[in-house]
Design a protein that fits this description.
By secondary structure, this protein is an alpha/beta fold. Helices cover 31% and strands 24% of the residues. Strands 3-2-1-5-4-7 form a six-stranded antiparallel beta sheet, sandwiched between helices. The chain has a six-stranded parallel beta sheet with strand order 14-13-12-15-16-17, sandwiched between helices.
């Protein structure tokens, strides 16, 4: 979502209209779950995805039509051999997509995008509500209204009244709400996928930062070397902390439940220091790089300091999925793959959706 919002702001700054395609409902297997979003600028640049393949190609055609006609559309796709039109779309399910025309100069558009982006900052939580005034197969040239509702109930956005009767419940979004009159709103969560605190800004740490940001984690990188921990080397990181020492760095990061700590410093003494600090936090994932011999050495030292086997059971070490990688870049891929798996395991089953390759 962050990449989508940044792309929209870029289009507004360049005075370019854009179109948004959102998967608003799925039934059965589909290329992506509800909430998947694709942006297409009038100059042809695209950001995001609704699933790839033939499904995305058809959605892009609808988005080009929206830009050409300045209209919005609601379309249903069926992925069943009979109506799919392509073997690549045989999934056995359905998806509804809302394609919205977004003029760059609509009143309040820039301010709304900025407010949505700020809602993705660490610790913030909000929901985006989009009014969908049309039924499946219909189109409209009217302005589409959006609202942001913060955790404190503050409403930001359209001057129109938000439809009554919407229950904003974080455990049931993304969600499409429809009324008997044919109106609908789509509610999605504005929240970063989770914080990944990377301790160590060397080659592996930089690779993890890049890839974790690419898959939409909020990345914090910590190191005690400014020549490594800087925006030039780590442009994807949301936060860069140059600490006086790793001893006190965890106090500045303050991982919460649901956050991940990745320990890839330049030496086992620093790794041990960070691991001890991480185990005193409620972080849901703690992973450390190293050989099994080094890991055993650190574990033994921590046991002597009063940590328990139960504490150490929280640690994923050696960190990363075993994919046979050896280079720093390959190791970074294995680590981020494990982070994705961790996040998937921590997501309640009712919020997951089945998918098929596009």
């Amino acid at each position: 979502m962050r990449h989508i919002l940044l792309a929209a702001l870029d289009a507004i700054e360049r005075r370019i209209d854009f179109a948004l395609a959102k998967v608003i409902r799925v039934h059965g297997s589909s290329p992506r779950k509800a909430g998947a979003t694709l942006t297409l600028m009038a100059d042809g640049r695209a950001v995001g995805t609704v699933g790839g393949g033939e499904f995305e190609a058809r959605t892009m055609d609808l988005m080009r039509h929206a830009l050409a006609t300045r209209t919005s559309h609601r379309v249903r796709f069926t992925f069943d051999g009979e109506h799919a039109g392509s073997p690549a779309m045989i999934c056995g399910g359905e998806a509804e997509v809302f394609v919205e025309f977004a003029p760059w100069d609509a009143p309040g558009t820039k301010e709304f995008q900025q407010s949505a982006l700020s809602s993705l900052k660490r610790g913030a939580e909000a929901q985006m509500v989009t009014a969908i005034p049309i039924g499946v197969g219909e189109h409209t040239a009217e302005r589409i209204h959006h609202w942001i509702v913060t955790a404190k109930g503050v409403r930001i956005g359209a001057d129109a009244e938000m439809p009554a009767g919407i229950v904003l419940c974080a455990s049931h979004v993304p969600q499409l709400y429809e009324d008997e009159a044919g109106g609908a709103v789509f509610v999605t969560q504005l929240r970063s996928k989770g914080v990944v605190a990377v301790f160590g800004a060397g080659h592996v740490g930089a690779g993890v930062a890049k890839l974790a940001a690419y898959v939409d984690f909020h990345v914090v990188v910590v190191d005690d070397r400014i020549e490594f921990a800087n925006k030039e080397r780590l442009p994807e990181a949301e936060e860069i902390i140059v600490a006086d020492s790793f001893q006190d760095a965890m106090k500045r990061v303050k991982p919460l439940t649901g956050d991940a700590v990745v320990i890839v410093t330049r030496g086992h003494e620093h790794d041990k220091t960070v691991l001890a600090a991480a185990l005193r936090t409620p972080a849901s994932y703690v992973g450390m790089i190293g050989s099994r011999r080094k890991i055993r050495f650190i574990y033994d030292a921590l046991l002597q300091e009063g940590f328990t086997d139960t504490d150490l059971d929280r640690v994923s070490a050696p960190i990363g999925l075993d994919i046979g990688g050896e280079t720093p870049e390959e190791i970074a891929v294995s680590i981020v793959a494990e982070l994705i798996a961790f996040k998937a395991r921590s997501t309640p089953p009712e919020l997951r959706s089945r998918s098929c390759a596009g």
